[in-house]
Specification:
The chain has 1023 residues and is mainly β. It is built from eleven helices and 59 strands. Helices cover 10% and strands 40% of the residues. The chain has a 16-stranded antiparallel β-sheet that branches. An eight-stranded parallel β-sheet has the order 29-28-27-26-25-32-31-30. Strands 1-10-9-12-6-3-4 form a seven-stranded antiparallel β-sheet, with no helix packed on it. α2 runs parallel beside α3 (377-385) and α4 runs parallel beside α5 (449-461).
Amino acid sequence: MKTWENHQIDGINRMPARAHFLTFPTRDRALFNNNKYTHAFKNLNGVWKFMFLDAPEYSPEGFASSDFDANQMDDITVPGNWQVQGYGKMHYSDLWYNFPINPPFVPTENPTGIYKRTFFVEQSFADKQIILRFCGVDSAYHLWVNGESVGYSKAARNESEFDITDLVRVGEENDVTVRVYQWSDGTYLEDQDMWWESGIFRDVELIGVPLDGIRDFKVTADLSDTYTDGLLSVDASLRSEADVQVTFELLDANGKSVLTQSVQAAGGKVHMESIVEGARHWSAEIPYLYKLLMTVEKDGEVIEVIPQNVGFRNICLKGDTFLVNGVAIKFKGMNRHDYNPRNGRVVAREEIEKDIVLMKQFNVNAIRTCHYPSSYYLYDLCDEYGMYLIDETDLECHGFELTGDYKWITDDPTWETAYVSRMTRMIERDKNHPSIIMWSLGNESAFGCNFVKMTEVAHEMDSTRLVHYEGDFDMESADVYSTMYTWLENPKKPFLMKDIVENSKHPHLLCEYCHAMGNGPGNLKEYQDLFYAHDKLQGGFIWEWFDHGIESYTEDGEKYYRYGGDFGDDPSNKDFCIDGMLMPDRTPSPGLYEYKKVVEPVTTTAINLEKGRISLLSRYDFADLNQFRLVYSIMEDDVMLQTGSLELPSIPARTAAEIILPYDLNAIEPVAGAEYCLNISYQLREHTAYAPAGYELATAQFMLPIHEAGIQVIPEGPLAVTREHMTLRAEGANFCVEFDMVRGNITSIVRDGMEVMSKGPRLTLWRAPISNDMEIIDQMKKIHFLHLEHEVVSDVQYWTENNVLRVQVDTINSTTNSAWHFKTRYTYVVCPTGDVMIEVEGTPSGRVELAPEMFPRIGVTMHLDQSMDQVRYCGMGPGENYADSKEAGMMGVYENTVDGLFTNYVVPQANGNHMNTKWVAMTNDRGMGLVASTEESFNFSTSWYEEKDLDDAKHTCDLKKRDYIVLNIDYKQNALGTFSCGQWQLDKYRAKFEPFKLSFRITPFNNKEIADKHVAHERIRLS
């Protein structure tokens, strides 16, 4: 039997798993905690020699020997995945195995990479145990050093260490050979939702450690029953049974020693325990760390000093909640893969740090490592910055779901070693990190005897943390009840969030929810409100952090990102990997800004706005709100009338307090038609590890009780109305409006010789599908044909009265082969000032019972001159917003360009909507253009592309700008939902088959004559 197909072999000559730590010759060097200052260390990353084969059996004779001619081999970068370096095939799938399911057997054609390099071993390694560590190799591999066989390992995202002391020549060149197999029996446990990528993708390290030093240790930093004192214990095992003394010194965050205790080793073991009175607690909000120094001495000589960060915290179950430091905390979390758009699963410490800093800046407090242990850098950074972790085992068997026997190997005892080993290796490596709150047994692998055993072993290894596994639906073993994408509402689903609230007797979390694919997700606020309302609903983790696009370039050098299916990979889940809150270039998506707002640390409520009284509720579990400075401003459209700031008083976690803002509304003289609002920004008072002083973490906005009716204007001037064949023309002193009397629509608006509009507003029910429409696209296109719209004109009338032109157009609006329709009436009033007042009113008609449950949108679209790409608007911004994703939007006057308002999603789709718009001005660089305004509000978006362009394009590089600008003004935009994987659009947010009326005014103007906002403040009154 081939080694890489034997699931009974977990490894050959691999050293027992242990904690990841560094060891130093002196205390001073230990405080630097840098690889360079350890006893002996060499990073073996870099350029290796590489040979790619179709199967291991094709390996050339003597490939592992030291005298093998490596010049015949290619160069490859380590760490790296060979697929992104030109070898093998890129393949993305969420679900399927890429070969016949016949565990533990894998294909004969098993892509294989042979890696070789030489390395010099310095004298610093002399008299040490020399360990070769591989931090991540996909999927399994054999190892040779200096031509001698060393061992074998698997479990791609687990560390493996090999003792090569007796094989290495100190002071000389040495060589290493690694043969890596893409497929192994371990692959059956590695069917995660991500790109299939192979090779040595994490660091390779050569380390030298003292022969009589500490081999492994476990630090337990708990709290007393009253949470007042720290309970510190350490269990360490030595590499020998030498007579050594270990001194434990605990330093506080200022470097002051708070504890010193020496223990004599016995039988190669050391145990210490002590009480730290008044110990500071660790939490994600206040990540207070102590530093433990473990000094090993033999005969009075220091052998080594090991530093370890320590955080005191307590984790326990209490009824239907789990507590951290006595509080039923809320996870505000993200699922995070190790990912890089150029380098595959190779991530540097700096990239991980950027992730965590950004998460902290966006109010994220937790990470679930999906679906494997992350690169070891992550854990130290989460300890330091403050981030709760669910550390997940490298285990997923999703492809078995389609066989009808999901638990095929999960419930097979012969696979117990493979399952348990992956979990124990993870726990051993990561056990000393205070950031880890739960151990997760894996993902989407059904449930069976092997998970029962994993739970038992996890509890035996670590009783201070909880065990998580979403597949344990009946709570046979897990400590917390975990579900995925549980819906808020659906009349056809038997299990909803309300059922968990009513029936669950366990703490609950959504380990995945609100699938962040493309434009979305929606419903974030609804979920968060539910979490806040029930202690046992302890939050969840958004799927997911990053879009997994592969950086690519067109022949012209334009960058774009490829996804599943773009490499000929079949079967593939296509763009299902483009599902992150961060775009591949690390640009935060609009969805991430929405999430930041939804989980912000302060909830602000107006008590009496006239007197400046507001209430502040802390959403923190531990931190005080006195870390913030509140900055407020009173805005009149785009003018700041008053501003001020105050440092918040002490408002402890989970409490509320009232404060008074010292503004004076009586001093404001209202301007006709202006909007008045109070804007509040909560900014950090001091610098933190993740953001500078002044950084904004929360906001609030209230419309003020100030209003002055708009400027009354009676339009005056000449107006000539003429008809020539089927063209109706209305001309004034400096404008002309033309109508097509067959179609009944505006075909041109000219002001001062410039055609500002070339196609007037036409009703549309269609928007380019968003990623979260993926489950209903076929219904929209193949049943209701919503993308194939028809407008049938039944009547066009016009007349003049009181020096205005009135045009009335009656139409039937529907789609191909549909018996339902809107009976629509367009009413136009053309004034002698050039203002065009437009009303579009629709009534559901025809076979209404055959209409779709919801429409992508209900609104009108029009074409503007391509020069009018400067945009100012009064509405919700600055980012796009929709009915179920609008919390981050704030009313205001914003300036941008058509390009700037376009969200460049990896997969082109509808985007850029702005709700509650009062007016929008589109002008060229000379200030000429038009203003669309309303006395109520509308949705608007503008783009260089038609909806069909966005629909047809598969990548951003497929988009070609039109020679005109599209302006959309909508009565209603449909909600986003998260139906790509989860809750569809909530009923209250849908655009339905219902009566509607959309009223607005188009005013051609020149901002050298009048400001856009003043145009919008006018109220046209016809005599």
